[in-house]
Amino acid sequence: MHSENIPVAGSDGTESTGVLDLPEGPPRAFALLAHRFGTAASQISEVLTEHGLAVLRVACEADEGSGSEVTALVHAANHLRDHYAAPSILIGHSLGGAAVLAATEQVPETRAVVTIGAPAATEQILELGAALLVMHSPEDDTVDIDNARQIFEAARHPKSFLSVDGADHLLTRQSDARFVASTLAVWAGRYLDEHTAPQPSPAEGVVEVSWNGATRFGQRITMGRHVMTADEPSPAGDDTGPSPYDLLLASLGACTSMTLRMYADRKQWPLENVSVSLHHSRIHAADCEDCETRTGRLDRIERVIRLVGDLDEQQRQRLLEIADRCPVHRTLHSEIVVDTALAAGDRTDDAPP
């Protein structure tokens, strides 16, 4: 699972932060999860991503179904629609249940709605226009289960009810949270368009980077089925992910370790583990005895390799030599050409037609 922070605006002009949890592969669908602080939202979301669903978590703390909470959910849905795909599943835990019932008519792509321990908001249910799953615990001493009866009776079919026996209102037991999440994931799957082709991943060898909208410099990096976040460290950025130079060092370190592993395996040497520590700095060219450049400043990467295993000195020295042969090391030492062009269809406002 990979997570990103997403700004969420309310009707009163305030802004909060939602959390978008993404599965490892292309999402089957996007879900919006409205919840109270203190509930098991993160655990529920984790299980849903295991089922291939992407989940945007938004905290709701105002009165049930209040305008500000509904507006925040609609804005969150709009963000998903603009940057990813519109949510087809709306989930509300506690007060969030009333909020999603009120927000559904403003999210036309909604196919399934789930309430968990939610207070009744029956005036929002008659025109729901989506399948409904009501989940409630008979032992809920915060929101009485009679609220679930009112919601269920007010709704039209298709609708389902599930009693979460023994659970408390916040689903504090991990087993309860996982049961709720896995059950609603299977139920919601009946209402998803499984024939819709998943959004294609970048071609092999292609990395796509775009602003993730969560922070000033936050970037969403997509590499095949892998997704990660990059950012600048504070105070310039918000430190929500590694910096570009961190990623550069990580590439060299990973390549070094992999290359040594492959070489040792081929030689059948007793190499148990490799760890690589790297540091980037800028130095004066005059301070580098082995550099051809004699003026100005140079980039310097210090790489320290730790080899674990019953290796003799000759084997260790040979592996040290092999480290300089890893493909990324060779790329950094070779002449590199970066061809840059605008994407097809892009043009500046003052560009000629």
TrEMBL record:
<dbReference type="InterPro" id="IPR003718">
    <property type="entry name" value="OsmC/Ohr_fam"/>
</dbReference>
<dbReference type="InterPro" id="IPR036102">
    <property type="entry name" value="OsmC/Ohrsf"/>
</dbReference>
<dbReference type="InterPro" id="IPR041127">
    <property type="entry name" value="PET_hydrolase/cutinase-like"/>
</dbReference>
<dbReference type="Pfam" id="PF12740">
    <property type="entry name" value="PETase"/>
</dbReference>
<protein>
    <submittedName>
        <fullName>OsmC family protein</fullName>
    </submittedName>
</protein>
<dbReference type="InterPro" id="IPR029058">
    <property type="entry name" value="AB_hydrolase_fold"/>
</dbReference>
<dbReference type="InterPro" id="IPR015946">
    <property type="entry name" value="KH_dom-like_a/b"/>
</dbReference>
<dbReference type="Pfam" id="PF02566">
    <property type="entry name" value="OsmC"/>
</dbReference>
<feature type="region of interest" description="Disordered">
    <location>
        <begin position="1"/>
        <end position="21"/>
    </location>
</feature>
<feature type="domain" description="PET hydrolase/cutinase-like">
    <location>
        <begin position="90"/>
        <end position="196"/>
    </location>
</feature>
